[in-house]
Amino acid sequence: MTVSRRDFLATAVVGSLSLGLQGQQAQSGKEQTANKSEASPGGGKRPIIVCANNGFNYLDDAYAFLAGGGDTLDAALRVVKGPEDDPNDTTVGLGGLPNEEGVVELDACCMHGPTRRAGSVGGVRNIKNVSLVSKAVMEHTGHVMLVGEGAERFAVAVGFPRENLLTDHSRKIWLLWKEYHSTQDWWGPGLADPHWQAPDIKPQADLMQERFRRLEERAADLGIAPELRKEAVYKVLFPPTGTIHCSALNEKGEISGCTTTSGLAYKLPGRLGDSPIIGAGCYIDQDVGSAGATGSGEENIKVAGAHTIVDNMRHGMSPLDAGMDALKRIARNYNNDMTKLRFVDMIYYILRKDGAYAGVSLWEAYPPDKIHKIAVHDGTRRAEKTVALFKGVSLDFPSLPNVPPEVKKQFE
Predict the structure, then answer these.
(1) How far apart are CA 363 and CA 358, in angstroms?
(2) Percent helix, strand and coil across the chain, each rounded to 5?
(3) In this predicted structure, what is the pLDDT of residue 215?
(4) Fewer CB in a 10 Å sphere around the end CB: N or C, the chain?
(5) Alpha-carbon distance values, 117 to 110, 111, 140, 341 (Å)
(6) Any idea which residues carry the catalytic annotation?
(7) What pLDDT digit, counting tens, does each position of 151-176 carry?
(8) Cβ atoms within 10 A of the Cβ of 329, count?
């Protein structure tokens, strides 16, 4: 199904290409001025944890554990386990938004720098903490990756309980989505298909207001609590990708990382994105550093983003330059065609062995106006803006609506 077959069309604030790279890590060999509103240059401080911003609330405990001599992978897992356990966080784990059939499928991977080991699981149902299951694969099998039913059986065999991951709230959001869209949103052709055509963008403020109103009314009919209806409507209109990555580095220079996800909301059953793919959603080299990703998983797989970034650092690039190069490879795959790239987004979380770090993104923000940030703790917990390759706000793929300002005010 082409994007143009959706109920209504989309647009975003799309600006010019931003090639003046500002942010966390100064370019090697070049003088660069950091934007004061962005993160300041980050480098050289250990221990340190860098993660996706949905891990912000879990950094203090993980950092205390790391600073007290705890293992780097265990520290990173402490961060990502928080959102996995939270039924109100619909991005990962319990309460994650389901696939198009209403089933929650989870993916995760981890890498332990000091021992150079890795573990991964994909398409796991009924097991909440798949990040810990990926570590169990690493520790208790001779394999690196287990998927589907086999991964679930393995998890139960080593002591993880089966449980229903679809909460009442996420089920109602799925029902709202199912009525509003269809069950075929991720059926092709995709962006990379030569027959894909960009939608004809036309603002329809009156129509949008009516659809927002109907969605809210239907959310009420489904029994979604009044204080949660606006959030539910946005998760129907702006389906979250639902991922968290975390990297941890101790004083000795040992580094590890993990990535866990519920994947694209309303995805095709069995879909694997980049999160469980070693070298795409997460990659660690004890001699160099770590990188992880959230965003358009299909695009990241095609550039092996995390491995590309770490390898760039191996060859002397700064964390910032290494991340920007990976983003440019994504853009190159579409010949810098903005009619397609506006439907793609990617955030990289980069940590070098000496403590230098960077957070970079393809776009400045995610719809409707969510500024991309990374979370950092090196003795001080903080959230920092990413450095964006493109100015403006991305769109999700499939196509999403242009929300007129007069409509958006109702949901702010």
Answers:
(1) 15
(2) 35, 20, 45
(3) 80
(4) C
(5) 8, 6, 12, 35
(6) 243
(7) 999 999 999 999 999 999 899 989 88
(8) 16
Among candidates 279, 296, 312, 280, which has minimal Cα distance to 363?
296
How does strand 357-366 pair with strand 387-393?
A: parallel
222: helix, strand or coil = coil
Token pair of 106 as six digits: 């989870």
What pLDDT is recorded for position 181? 66
Asked whether the beta carbons of 193 and 186 are under 8 A apart, the reply is no
Tokens 């979604």, located at residue: 224
* 77-127 pLDDT, tens digit each: 999 999 999 998 888 999 999 999 999 999 999 999 999 999 999 999 999
d(CA 25, CA 313): 12
* Residue 176 to residue 171: CA distance in whole angstroms: 9
146 beta partners:
121
What are the average pLDDT values for consecutive 10-residue runs of the chain, which has 412 residues? 32 31 39 34 80 97 98 98 93 92 96 98 98 98 98 98 94 85 59 70 54 80 85 73 91 97 92 97 98 95 98 98 98 92 94 98 84 96 96 65 46 40
- For the sheet containing 48-52, what is the strand order? 145-147, 117-124, 106-112, 255-261, 243-249, 48-52, 373-377, 381-385
Residue 206: count other Cβ atoms within 10 Å of its Cβ: 11
Task: Transcribe 260-295 into DSSP letters.
Answer: EE--STTPPTT---STTSBTTTEEEETTTEEEEEEE
Q: How far apart are CA 37 and CA 325, in angstroms?
A: 23
pLDDT of residue 111: 98
Nearest partner of 79 among 45, 129, 115, judged by Cα: 129
What does DSSP assign to residue 163?
-
**What pLDDT was estimated at residue 198?**
65
Give the whole-angstrom CA distance, residue 393 versus residue 400.
12
Instruction: Round to whole Å and give the CA distance between 163 and 197.
Output: 42
DSSP 8-56: S-----EEEE--S--SSSPPTTS--PPPTTSPPPB-S-SSEEEEEGGGG
pTM of the model: 0.83
Q: Which helix (H) or strand (E) is 249 found in, with range?
A: strand 243-249
